[in-house]
Structure prediction request, 1007 residues.
Amino acid sequence: MNKRQPDFVLVLCVVLLLVVGALMVYSASAAWGSFIFEDSWYFAKRQALFAGLGLTVMAITTHIDYRIWKRWSLSFLLICFVLLILVLIPGVGLVRGGAQSWLGVGAFSIQPSEFMKLSLIIFLAAVLAERPEQLTSFKTGMLPLLLLIGAAFGLIMLQPDLGTGAVMVLTCMVLLFVAGGRYKHFFWLGMLGVSMFAALVAAAPYRLQRLTSFLDPWSDALGSGFQIIQSLYAIGPGGLMGLGFGESRQKYFYLPEPQTDFIFAILAEETGFIGGSLVILLFTAFMWRGIRIAMLAPDGFGTFLAVGIVGMLLIQVLINIGVVTGMFPVTGITLPFLSYGGSSLTLMLAAVGLLLSISRYIEA
Amino acid sequence: MRNRSIVNKRLLFMLALGFSIALILIIRLGYVQFSLGGWLAEEAEESWSRDIPFEAERGEIRDRNDEVLATNISAPTLLIVPRQVQNPVETAAELAPILQMDKAEVYEKLTEAQSIVRINPQGRKMEEATADEIRGLDAPGLYIAEDNKRHYPNGRYLSHVLGFAGVDNQGLTGIERYYDEHLKGDAGYVSFYSDAKGQRMPGMADRYIEPQDGSHVRLTIDDRVQTIIERELDRAEATYDPDGAMALAMDPNTGEILGMSSRPDFHPEDYQDVPPEIYNQNRPVWSQYEPGSTFKIITLAAALEENLVDLDHDTFYDPGHVEVAGQRLRCWKKGGHGQQTFLEVVQNSCNPGFVALGERLGKTALFDYIRSFGFGEKTGIDLDGEGQGILFDEDAIGPLEQATTAFGQGVSVTPIQQVAAVAAAVNGGDLYQPYLAKEWLDPEKETVVRRSTPDAKKSVISEETSKEVRRALEHVVAKGTGKGAFADGYRVGGKTGTAQKSKDGVYLKNNHIVSFIGVAPMDDPEIVVYIAVDNPKDTLQFGGVVAAPIAGTIINDSLQAMGVEKREDQLEKDLDWNETPLVEVPDVTGMELRDLHVANYPLKLETEGDGTVVTAQAPAPGEKVANDSVLRLYLGDKSTEDD
Prediction:
């Protein structure tokens, strides 16, 4: 098989998003950085470092034949399950932001759930490519996969991390749908999802509060609605052109941690509707190239792997921007390539590397 | 792959779904930034900005001739922004002695978890010197805000009308309260952008919104009249040690209040030193009591308007009492006034005579007139706390109630109602709404921005009736019970009143409110003066004895101050047994000394200067003086006079 050059448009989109992200991380975190670490470049420097590391990893995975991962998919999955269990052990997992979801020491820590997302995608892609026709049967096709997904989801919810869990489940559903799952199965799954969600809300009332707060954040402006209001206070004044780079007001301690989950708010504040839309369009272009790779992939594994990776990234984009603009309740999902965050950025770029690896084998 | 086509179809579907989602996100972003943007920007602005207020300057209160009655003096206020205080320990040590406070207390204020802290009362409305000292510290986080406090240059003068403003420059009583909205203006502020931790946001300019000063108000009060009133009430208080006193002067042709005072009074800057009832009770508008005989003016006017009496030709015999519904109502004079014309009934303030007038009117007409003269409802003067008086319930009026009402007993009215009613009775019949705020001035340009105009609410009686009322009232002063109010050349008319005070429905013994309501000059009234003294001590408690002379002095001095011409053709005063007749001073200027036959003049002559010709004299020709007064002549040379 002839090897091609990796998809240039896709690389361009990712690099542009990374550049925008690094700039915005600098601007958004300057105040917090100098407040906490007396270094306004603190977050930006680290973001650049992780982006560089991530790009290196991406270059490596790009040049590894993606089909290798098929062989390792089960091992990865098992390792991830072990890690997910480990993280729940008190004293082993680190608690950050109310969830016990980190393993490691200080800056050198990872979120097993992030790795689980990718492992599960690789594993499902392998399984679906192997026996695609089985999916039409519920008992032998859908059910085992759903149980697997459910197990992973359950472990993540024990941390608890609804956001990551939801992204993972939705990504898997996209994968199963593209692979030819039956509509009626999805209908019943949807019903199940709704009732499970209701049960989850009933179990932890703070989720319901998050849910209602996004409908009318001003009803509890200092409590559950606080983040959304502060986010809207950033986006609203941005207008068409924005306040200009570095001119954000909300980054001055109004918006908590503006460099992570709410980086899009600062982007929209400083660069306005134009900047915000351009970033959305870059993600759209990324999606177009990604799905194109999926359609032209030489085998089922490549197709499903590509769809899984693109789906995972774009579901995060949808949820993050939806939250920041007040369409969804606050979930704690970062914006791929833009939000500050070391290990997840590296992992995402590694996944993009997989995508680019597939693009080298497309049949066009 | 067998199902490749299904997969590709579903991939295309996902692509379309992705595009749609991207579009939705962009639309949502646009909605937030454009549709909600303006509102969000305002809300956000508010959450970022911290305001340091700049108080507006309260408008001045002035009299009709621009004499300043209430103004402001600079009194800066200290504002602390704790987050910006860099060294609270050091700053507290420096600030404490300036404010004469404890160091620890100041430290506490400097570190309070508030965006802006004030120190009450030490840091509030400080002396300018104190503020300068604080400015001199140049300590971050301390701000001196321009502020001022109210100053009443004339002290207790006009205190009930002016009222006072509180520590926040908010009007609390009187004109200060009634017109607070106009006087107070709108506060401005310096607004700086703050981060969520209270620090100045870097690179953001402060915004200064200028305060809008309040408008000045020019009252109808005439400072000269008010000064006379205050002086006379001081004298009355010193002479009679009364429970209270009040005076009210109004222009009968407009309803403009020229002067108003109430005792006991207070100093507006130290209002806390007196009990609230003192500063809250502006007696001329607040108090309501039986008017007594002053009310007879209303009965008189009504009877005249209805053509029920001819003052000169109808006569009445007063045996000293009158029998009404089995009750014996006495005249104030024992034994009665005997046979009188109705003009003499008015002059003598004869109660049975007024009962007769009341009977001629009948209850419906009498009470209709009383109501149309404005009794039983507030006049609507621009002051709070006005009383409305009490009239008999229509159904409860029997012959006895009708009879007592006719001479001013059994009804309850306010002084301001009486003044407005009497003004209508003498001004040709127009009932004016009394008012105090004459003009509003722009605080900077001093131009008139709003002006009150006289409001004649209704016409109550005809000009002819009014003329007859004036004639009768002039007789009361020249020949009757009101002689004490006589002011030579000013044709004073008026009516005395002596009202028994009652407590819990029982009349008190030897405890009266004695009053006089006077008008002058009677050919063309320019002032109505009401004066009442509550329970004067060591005197006959009669209006004619206590109140009339005070009213006479106020009228005389006020008209002179206002520059009103003395009249030639007045009704001459009947002399009481103890009075010496007045003689008119002859004009002797220009006469040769030797032509002056000293014996021809009932005055003692004294000369000054060398010469043979009178060049000047004092008093001036035409003045009335007692017949043994001194006429001072200034002598000079005739020839030099001619040059």
Summary: The first strand of chain B starts at residue 49 and ends at 54. Residues 583-636 of chain B form a domain with the Trypsin Inhibitor V; Chain A fold (CATH 3.30.10.20).
